[in-house]
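REQUEST FORM: STRUCTURE PREDICTION
Request ID: SP-0412
Submitted by: Lab K.M.
Chain count: 1
Length (residues): 266
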Amino acid sequence: MNAGTHARLRRRRAKWSSVLRLALLIALSSLAVMHPASGAQPQQKEAFYPAWAEQARFLQPLQVLDTDSALGRRNLHPKQITLKDMARMHGHLCDGLVTAWVELSEALHALFPNGVVDRTDVRVVSKNAPCWSDAGAWMTGARVNQGTLMLDNAVGDGFIVQRISTGAAVRVSLRPGVYPPQLAALEQSIRARRARGEAVAPAEIDRFERGADDYSRKLLNTPPKQAIAVETLAAFQFPDHSLNPLAPRSDIINRDAPRGTASETK
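STATUS: Completed
RESULT:
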C-alpha cells in the first residue's frame, strides 16, 4: 500500500470518528432531556396559588421573629412569611384568607412600626372560622392552647390584636362596602341550605368562587388603608380564653359536591 492510500485511509477514519463523536453527543443530550439529573427537580405547577395573587400590587411579605428552639432565645434575624405560605398551610386561597392576611398585616404594622413582628409578644381575638382562626394563629404565633388566641364571634370579620409587652391593642376590620353584599348573600344562602341538608347546584358554587376570586384580586390591588379600618383600643383587657367555643369546620361542607365545567377548568 503506497503513501497516498495510507493518507486517504487516515482522512476517512478521522472523518468517521468525528461523525461518531457528534452522534454520541446528540444521544447523550437527548438522554439528559428525558432523564434530568437527580439534583434537578422539575418545577411543579402550584394550582392552589393563582398568578393574580403572585402579581398583586400591594401584597407584601411579613417579617417576623420567633425563638431558636424549644428552649431557645429570641431570633437574632427575622424570617419572611407570605400569603402563599399561609395558603399552603390552610389548604387553599380564598376570600376569607386574603381578608385576614390584609387585616392582620395592618394590625401588626400598627403595633410593630419598625416592620418586624415579634410573634412571642402577640395575642389575638378572632371569630371561630377556619380562615380567620388559622390566619390569627399562623401569622401572629397566638395559640388557643397557650391562652393567646381567643375565639369570639362578636369580633365579626375582623380581629383584635394586642402587643402583650406594652398592652397596646387595635381592632381591624373591612371598611363598609369593601366586601360585595351580593357575594355575602350568596354565601349565606349556600351555607343555610347545606345546614338543612339541601343540595346546592355546582353552578352556584362556581359563581361564588368566581366572585370571591374577583374580590380577593381587587383587595390585594387596593392600598390597604383604603380597605381596612384600624381602631386603637385604650386599656383593652384580653378576654378569658377558657370560654373558647367549639364549632365544626365550615369550609368542607361542599367537599363532595359535583363540579361543573367552570370549576374543572378554573
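NOTES: The longest helix spans residues 3-34.
Reviewed by: T.R.
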